[in-house]
Amino acid sequence: MSNVDCQLVIFDMDGTLTRPNINFDEIRAAIGLDGEPILEALAKMPPADRARADAILQEFEDRAADGSELQPHALEVVAAIRESGRPAALMTRNTRRSVDIVMRRHRLDFDFIRTRDDGINKPAPDPVLDICRHFRVAPASTWVIGDYHFDIQCANAAGAISVHLAEAFETLPPWSNEARHIVKSLLEFSRLLGIRLDTESRPILPGA
Ligand SMILES: [Mg+2]
Hints:
The protein is an alpha/beta fold. The protein is 39% helix and 12% strand.
């Protein structure tokens, strides 16, 4: 990362660290919502409807977490960032519970995890600002990677460096150009940060 100003890296979870496996349209249909963002729609519901909708959402999220698969190089990129002395954080609109499932399943570890249970969510800048405050790092030196518009909006509103992970898109969505950088893989992201992943060239220790 020699000549890149990067002191902190924030990852989105679904579709960024993990392969996209949540179908939001399916969740909306099960709850009975139109095209609106799910959490915002739930926040406007009367308590009884909200409890029912929340249970449906959590069931989908838990199932997705249970069946989650990592994006190629996810473990190596997170490890390499942390080995270089930069904290790696996770921000997600999921619950802490489903994040815990994903972390355990893939033996992932982050220096800080910001879930929807912890305050105002993306696309507001709050998650990025909270994480920056925690590490006392300026947003301008913070890189944020995500696969959805909310990640880019959140990063940009906080003054961080936004990166769109566009591996799932054949043609880029119109909002993609709001991101400072666009990459097709986590490997490409690591190169952008100046990190070389040399796991294959590492000597194998005797007896390891
Ligand atoms: Mg995502």
